[in-house]
Amino acid sequence: MTDQTTDTIPAATTSASPKAGGGLLGLTKKDFGLFLLVIALTMLAPFLLNPFPENSAMAQFNAGYPDLMQRFVIFGIFAIGFNILFGLTGYLSFGHAAFLGVGSYAGIWAMKLLTLNVIPSILASMLVAGLFATLVGFISLRRSGIYFSILTLAFAMMSFALAYSVLTPITGGETGMQLQYFDPRILDAALEPGQTPRANLFGLDMATSTNLYFGNWVFTLNVGYYIAAFCMLIAFYLSIRIFRSPFGMMLRAVKSNQNRLNYTGISPKPYTLAAFVISGMYAGLAGGLLVAMDTQVGAERMFWTASGEVVLMTILGGAGTLIGPVLGAGFIKYFENIVSKINEATLHTWFAFLPDGLEDVVVAMIYPFVGKGWHLTLGLLFMAVVIFLPGGLVQGGQKLVGLFRRKKADDKTASSHTPAE
Amino acid sequence: MTKSNFTRRGVMKTGAVAGAGLATPTIFTSAVWAQGFTNEPTGDTVTLGFNVPQSGPYADEGADELRAFQLAVEHLNGEGDGGMMQTFSSKELDGTGILGKRVEFVTGDTQTKSDAARASARSMIEKDGAIMVSGGSSSGVAVAVQALCQEAGVIFMAGLTHANDTTGKDKKANGFRHFFNSYMSGAALAPILAAQYGTDRNAYYLTADYNWGYTTEQAVRESTEAAGWNTVNTVLTPLTQTDFSSYIAPVLQSDADVLVLVHYGGNMVNSLTNAVQFGLRERQANGKNFEIVVPLYSELMARGAGENIGGILGSQNWDWKLENELGAKYSGTNAFVQSFGTKYGFPPSQAAHTCYVQTLLYADAVQRAGSFNPCAVDEALSGFEFDGLGNGPTLYRADDHQCFKDVVVVRGKENPENEFDLVEIVEVTPTEQVTYAPDHPQFAGGSLGACNPGA
Questions:
Q1: Which among A161, A182, A246 has the least Cβ separation from residue B238?
Q2: C-beta pairs of B221-224 under 8 Å, 24+ apart in sequence
Q3: With a CB-CB cutoff of 8 Å, which residues 138-167 of chain B face chain A?
Q4: Which residue of A164, A233, A372, A377 is the best one to mutate when testing the B interface, meaning the one whose CB has the most B CBs within 10 A?
Q5: Same domain as B297, residue B368
Q6: What is the CA radius of gyration of chain B?
Q7: What is the mean pLDDT of residues B265-289?
Q8: Overall average pLDDT of the B82-96 stretch
Q9: What pLDDT was estimated at residue A173?
Q10: How far apart are CA B61 and CA B300, in angstroms?
């Protein structure tokens, strides 16, 4: 924050600047390819996630319904933002869910006071989460390592406790906050008593869905999902730009050796604070979208387990990689929503072909790992990933690719890591 | 900070891509719903969604609710001994499913978090095609899921939810509650407290610091004050508190002679244990025996608190001994306990009872209405009077979709014989005493609105 640093930044950055502006949208060919892949995946998600025909036994594993698809992209945004902080600067925030929660509350209040249109609400979410992140970051970033983590955790738990009880008038406490027909909403016409307020984008209801039928397959195209997906694409694009920018390079420098930066006469604080605030605003965007898709906020989304979840997502997918956090988010949300719904009765129908005694044994063996035991399975998988694939799912993908084209692998993998300086 | 060099070509390419992206969502603007209402069952089966806490602090209640749901589904499909279908005053259900369609169900984990509960309920509605969602073990969750069901256009049959708001300011046309509420607890307890402990008592409240705590404390406070009691102090305790010593100590310094613990679940187990450890049960204050009151009792909590619950008064929605002790007015109780006990080997909790009853009530309403349409169900259930489901004559009031029935006041047994028989029934407060006007101040605000059949 000294005068000295502001002078040195431009000098330092221009020299490190990669060849930007060459490709489409200012991305290198490789990044643009990745971006196109993500665009294709998100736009075709309703089809890709519903590979099994309706009424088949495997339909249980279909994930292509609006709620889960929305969660995939929203928590993808959350994890992308977290990764900008954790993946680049190495600062492990254990309280990121607080920004998600604060963003959600801001979003719902915008919908209560201003309009049911989602755009002001999402902007309010990002703004308020950004301000809150500035405050928390300013204080927490005075320390690094474990102390930083503990400080952020403390802030998050404080926010949770406040939202849960003390601030009940503005957060709804344990019951959470919902839209009511009698909310003031100064920009909208008043609703009839008892009429359900619905979030919309210029009159386009978030819950609007179109079902496409192909034989036994049903695909649901949902307005809310595509709006959330569009936000995620912007978020993803910005994250690529940040990763490849001189600013991103400075953040990596903070991660690799902060003392060296200090000795060079550069204060890392403005960079880390900027990263923290950006990351907080990503969380705010995710929170705002959650509200836009499902107009309700519960304080639990700020609980420390929610903060831990985004850490898991990022590490599981691959911290510091572009696509990793999105994969991790999808992975965890899939488990939470699909595996947790497999109950004993479902298992019995699957293994009905076995003789009775054997069926019971098999079901008894599998049951602890599904249904309410999904945490157990997720924990085991997480351990496996951390032990065998420290680079997360992305490393797993790279290994798979490497298996198929071993010869060319050497020069390919080397280029994926931009050399520092 | 990036040095940007805009070229005409670059801008046009970027614009084209951005435009395509912007246009994408607007392609899918037309809602195509061939159906008359959300998730109309078209095959020969109908799916119900049972959304219960399978992890977290109320997992025990959730497990018991799930057992009851499974039992109800069996009975609806004509398996087992039929349970309360034999005693139910409405004889529409015949064991062939609902409207001839076989009943299937999906389950989900609410984790006792409103977010998780809504996610789970949405997946039931959007993915599994559930036509009705039931369950839950906390008012926060019930309010959240009820609002969701209203939006989505399916029926919500609340499980264990006791706060006034569920059928008060957060009531919804698509939501129905069979369980009793805070107000009823207060109204049922006050006369019995006055009769047992006198009308000149000084009460001290320890209240769990969240919505259910507030409404329950208010209900008990207003009812007992009307009976002549004096409120010394009310203290909010954090929900995550596990050691209540620091909250109990000031009680000893005050001139209170009754301690009301507005706690539930693990909170109640801990605070009661602390209170007993501090010797409050043996204490004399103002020349009277010091007493402890727990407004909402549950068997599962009583089991957790062990011998500490001996002699402590509280209220319940239902108890498995009702018919044995108080006669045929509460018929259905034994039939349910019988089939539950046969299947699982122990008597059901009140959470199990309310969930079982809600499932039967829903099935019966559909059967009577002749349609799964939420609006038809709404019409069939609103103002519906029934009997034979364990609580005596009961009314589903049309104004707020709350059931009105007798409230059981119980006392913890001093020397329980086994772990399922921990409470004794003191008295049953008749319906008239716990009935209130729909616009009672504790329930003010909010509106049922119109039923929503969905798209």
A1: A161
A2: B221/B186, B222/B186, B222/B442, B223/B186, B223/B187, B223/B189, B223/B190, B224/B186, B224/B189, B224/B190, B224/B193, B224/B194
A3: 138-140, 143-144, 147-148, 150-152, 163, 165
A4: A372
A5: no
A6: 25
A7: 89
A8: 91
A9: 80
A10: 7
Report residue B190's pLDDT band, with 50, 70 and 90 as the boundaries.
Answer: very high
In a domain, B286, yes or no: yes
Measured on CA atoms in the order B185, B190, B192, B193, is the torsion positive or negative? Answer: positive
CATH of the domain at B270: 3.40.50.2300
Is the torsion defined by CA of A38, A40, A46, A51 positive or negative? negative
Q: Is B182 on the interface with A (CB under 8 A)?
A: no
Assigned token pair, B89: 């005053």
CB B79 within 8 A of CB B366: no
- Of B25, B29, B107, nearest to A341 by CB-CB distance is B107
Which of B74, B210, B109, B88 shows the shortest CA–CA distance to A176? Answer: B210
Structure confidence by residue, pLDDT tens digits, A13-42:
343 444 444 567 788 888 999 999 999 999
Please indicate, yes or no, if residue B24 is contained in any of the structural domains.
no
From B316, B334, B364, give the residue that closes a domain.
B316
Cβ atoms within 10 Å, residue B437: 8
Tell which CATH classification among 1.10.10, 1.10.150, 1.10.3470, 3.80.10 matches the domain A3-303: 1.10.3470
Distance in Å, alpha carbon of A211 to nearest chain B alpha carbon: 7
Measured distance CA(A227)–CA(A118) in Å, rounded = 10
Q: In which residue are the tokens 């508190």 written?
A: B241
ipTM value > 0.90: no
Note the pLDDT of residue B24: 46
User: DSSP E strands: which ranges in A101-216?
Assistant: 177-178, 200-201, 204-205, 209-214
Say yes or no: B83 and B162 in one domain: yes
Question: Given an 8 Å threshold on Cβ–Cβ distance, is B163 in contact with A194?
Answer: no
Do B28 and A221 count as a contact with CB atoms less than 8 A apart? yes
Q: Which domain holds residue B396?
A: 45-180+322-400
DSSP codes, A201-264: ETTEETT-EEEEEETTEEEEEEHHHHHHHHHHHHHHHHHHHHHHSHHHHHHHHHHH-HHHHHHT
Give contacts of B438 with chain A, Cβ < 8 Å: none
d(CA A192, CA A181): 7
- Look-up of token digits 């200090």: A262
- What sections of A17-63 are H helices per DSSP? 29-48
CA nearest B169 in A: which residue?
A180
Closest CA relative to residue B4, chosen from A7, A26, A250: A26
pLDDT for B433-445, tens place per residue?
999 999 899 998 8
- Which residues of chain B make contact with A342, given a CB cutoff of 8 A? none
Give yes or no for a contact between A278 and A242, defined as CB atoms under 8 angstroms apart: yes
Question: Is-contact A333 A75, C-beta < 8 A?
Answer: yes
Place of tokens 């729909």: B438
**Block residue for tokens 């602890």:** A368
A226–B25 CB contact, under 8 Å: yes
Question: Quick check: B414 pLDDT over 50?
Answer: yes
Interchain CB contact of B8 with A (< 8 Å): no
Q: Which residues of chain A have pLDDT under 70?
A: 1-23, 406-421
- Among B295, B281, B363, which Cα is nearest to B48's? B363
Q: What is the pLDDT of residue A23?
A: 66
Does residue B245 contact residue B205 with C-beta atoms inside 8 Å? no
The more confidently predicted of residues B1 and A39 is A39
Who wins on pLDDT, A373 or B188? B188
Given B270, B290, B316, which residue is the final one in a domain? B316
Instruction: Show the tokens assigned to B70.
Output: 């499974």
Q: For residue A235, which of A322, A360, A362 has the smallest C-alpha distance?
A: A322
Q: Confidence class of residue B6 from pLDDT cuts 50, 70 and 90?
A: low
Say how many domains are in chain B. Answer: 2
